Amino acid sequence: MTVPWVVKYRPRTLDEVENQEDVKDELRGWIESWLKGKPTTNAVLLYGPPGTGKTTLALALANSYGLELIEMNASDSRNLSSIRGVAERASITGSLFGEKGKLIFLDEVDGIQPKQDYGAISAMLEVLKNTKFPVIMAANDPWNPNLRDLRNAVKMIEVKRLGKIALRRLLKRICTNEKVKCEDKAIDALIEASDGDARYSINFLQSIAEGYGEVTEKLVSELVKRKERELDPFETIRNVFWARFGWQAKQAVSNSQVEYDLLMRWISENIPVQYDSIYDVWRAYDALARASIFLTRAKLSSWDMLSYTFDLMGPGVAMAEIGKKSQTWKAKWKKYQFPTLVQQLYRSKKTREIRDEIIGKIGRKLHSSSSKVYNDVFPLFVVIASADKESIQKSLGLTQEEIDFMESIQGSQVSEETRERSAGTSRSSSTRSSTRSSRTRKS
Ligand SMILES: Nc1ncnc2c1ncn2[C@@H]1O[C@H](COP(=O)(O)OP(=O)(O)OP(=O)(O)O)[C@@H](O)[C@H]1O
């Protein structure tokens, strides 16, 4: 069986890795800080499009520094014990194979589904906190709100698409080694189609070379399908806001790797960042609110409606800027923001969980609904609990965490929570309708 060229020509050391000079420098600095016993950070997260060398960089880093790579695909073995097991295995094998240093590699961390893979993210955070070895992780899309704690616990390093010069060098080297006749224009066409993905271009090179004995421009243009490119959230919203024509904005939202509901939040957050005129902002939110209505309809009744959602959240938002009609219009560069609503809700998730647990306990004693307890009883309990702590704690059977929570909140903080709650429902019309739609779906 022939060895796949992506494996045969995978760089073994950092020096052999094409491009990615900044990434290599960052990795060298980080691993050397570990070797000196003063790690700058326990873990790094390499993120970027597929086939750009994240896995290769982890392997090359281990080889270049003589480290043993303890590898695991985070989205395969999705549970707490197997993730913990990696760290444990790393320390156990130390005694079996001597003093060789180790590098723990967790691939595809964005494949973890917090609901199904319960506890996986907290297990990873635990590993990151207590690890005795450097941890390197890889992901294509690290912007999922569920990965927020993980992002905060690591150093994020972006791995960009490979440049044309580097890809050309790589493909030509393979052709020379394999003694395959390869037209220069064929290589250019392969590079064009692969959009910076080395794996894609090498695999196609091999399949044409093995199937036809040579690689010509004609064969490439006949056989290679242009790679469907998925856009990350920042690229998606930039392409929407910078679109001059409706079809460009529609393409951006259709090819986005971000899930529809979340993409609406990204757009919603960044409309006032991009547009200066209040009228443009108003028109854009109007389009987004309508997109949200169609998305709910699509999910509840017919997926055909999804096309209208794309029309409204892509072209609808993009064409809200009246200035685009002018010949002299130029796209304005803006620093886009991560959706704050998602951040806020995530940050207050734990607090809300504890509060709801206490409310549930009070509700069971009083035979009242959670909303009644939340609105009418809970604020009083906070006040009473500070006066008659022990008996209330005893009668409700509060845990230590809940006792700490009750002690930590005073009247002012309760109202702050209430404000936060109402902030979650009084944002833009679009967000309001998308929150409403998700509630409708749940029910
Ligand atoms: N910078 C590079 N220099 C040389 N070869 C590369 C480079 N990047 C990728 N390759 C080639 O492409 C193949 C695939 O790369 P790799 O598996 O590292 O990509 P990845 O970014 O981890 O992809 P994914 O996100 O899909 O896991 C490698 O086996 C190697 O042959």
Automatic annotation (TrEMBL):
Coiled coil: none annotated. ATP binds at G48, P49, P50, G51, T52, G53, K54, T55. Residues 409-443 are annotated as: Disordered. Residues 40-161 form the AAA+ ATPase domain. One of its GO terms (biological process) is DNA replication. Pfam families: AAA (PF00004), RCF1-5-like_lid (PF21960). Gene3D superfamilies: 1.10.8.60, P-loop containing nucleotide triphosphate hydrolases (3.40.50.300). GO terms for molecular function: ATP binding; ATP hydrolysis activity; DNA clamp loader activity. Residues 423-437 have a biased composition (Low complexity). Keywords: ATP-binding, DNA replication, Nucleotide-binding. Belongs to the activator 1 small subunits family. RfcL subfamily. Part of the RFC clamp loader complex which loads the PCNA sliding clamp onto DNA. Heteromultimer composed of small subunits (RfcS) and large subunits (RfcL). PANTHER family: CHROMOSOME TRANSMISSION FIDELITY FACTOR 18, REPLICATION FACTOR C SUBUNIT 1. This is Replication factor C large subunit. It comes from Metallosphaera hakonensis JCM 8857 = DSM 7519. The lineage of its organism: Archaea, Thermoproteota, Thermoprotei, Sulfolobales, Sulfolobaceae.
